Amino acid sequence: MQLDFFPSRTLTFYLAKLFVVRILAMLAVLVLVLMALDLLSTTGEILAAPGNGQSELLTYAMLRIPQLISRFLPYSVLLATLITLVTLNQNSEVVAMKAAGLSAHQVLAPLLLTAAIVSVVSFAFNERIVTRATATLKAWEGAEFGPIPEDSAVKTNVYLTDGANILAASRLTGTGEAIRMEGVTWYSRDSSGMLAQQVRAERATYAAPGWKLENIESFDVASADTRAQDTMIVGEGLTVAQIELDSVDPDAQDFFSLSRSIDAYEAVGRRTSELRAKWWHKLSGPLSAFLMPLLGSIAAFGLARSGQLFLRAIIGMALGFAYFVVDNAALAMGNFGGYPPFLAAWAPFFLFTLIGETVLIRTEE
């Protein structure tokens, strides 16, 4: 019986139903509160754009909510775990289950199964909805909440290098030789690496070779002279392929698109550790929901009247939030090249799986 993790179908559905209801309730509360706070800080910027009104605020909310759901779903699973297990403990239901011969792992099995399903749904939701919402929202923010760009290839805040020189654009649309940049700034450096000239332009198009800046205002550092001109060709070393590579946004690409972008980077000998870490995290991130019942399981056991139930809940919450802190830190280290990409994405998950199992076995099994 100890190896049968679901000895009772009725009990499995009962625990899964309790868990799902609490996950949805906690997720709704978190998203509503955070969305309200986000709107308080962003409404002024949205309404500042000419013609924007209530419909644009609703559009922003519809684009932002998928991001909030994706980010805070694991937190919701952690809180739902603690609430569910504390309630079962207080009502002596855990005592009844253990008296019937169930082990700690069998008590947790329905919650772990539910969390695994949540992880799969989270991955699909991220791939189909969150990436598209992120791409559209970033493009809209790049347009300063003006008309929403219809081009699916829109990218914002693009930063490119041509040797020591830098080309920055607030918005990039199109692909291939039809690429068009808006809000362009060109920083030209001299042989010593010091800034020699700064050029601002309304737009830039591909000039084969180089990029043609239009409606220019240039500032010469040496003479402190500012002058306007119609056009200028810059960045002759910047090719279309290089710009398409440099403008990759891992948060706005799905798992398979990002994999192709990484292959393109590796084909030209570019550094891929940051993209690779984000690629692995697209798998390990949703799986964090599966880990939460294990980390919060300490709240299920121990007698409620002993006075230690609240302390157990605090320990479970501390373990859960410690995972998120370590996960973010490891991912940051992976982005900077301090950790190998696979280790940055998966080490926190495996580490806290071992910690959760150790706590559960040593205290309850």
Automatic annotation (TrEMBL):
Alphabetical UniProt keywords: Cell membrane, Membrane, Transmembrane, Transmembrane helix
Localisation per UniProt entry: Cell membrane
UniProt superkingdom: Bacteria
Organism of origin: Pontixanthobacter luteolus
Signal peptide segment: none
Protein name (Swiss-Prot/TrEMBL): LPS export ABC transporter permease LptG
The gene coding this protein: lptG
Membrane topology: Multi-pass membrane protein
Keyword Transcription among record annotations: no
A GO cellular component annotation in the UniProt record: ATP-binding cassette (ABC) transporter complex
Transmembrane segments: 12-37, 72-88, 108-125, 309-326, 338-361
Pfam families: LptF_LptG
Cited InterPro entries: LptG, LptG/LptF_permease
PANTHER family per the UniProt record, alphabetical: LIPOPOLYSACCHARIDE EXPORT SYSTEM PERMEASE PROTEIN LPTG (PTHR33529:SF2), SLR0882 PROTEIN-RELATED (PTHR33529)
Main location: membrane
GO biological process, one term: transmembrane transport
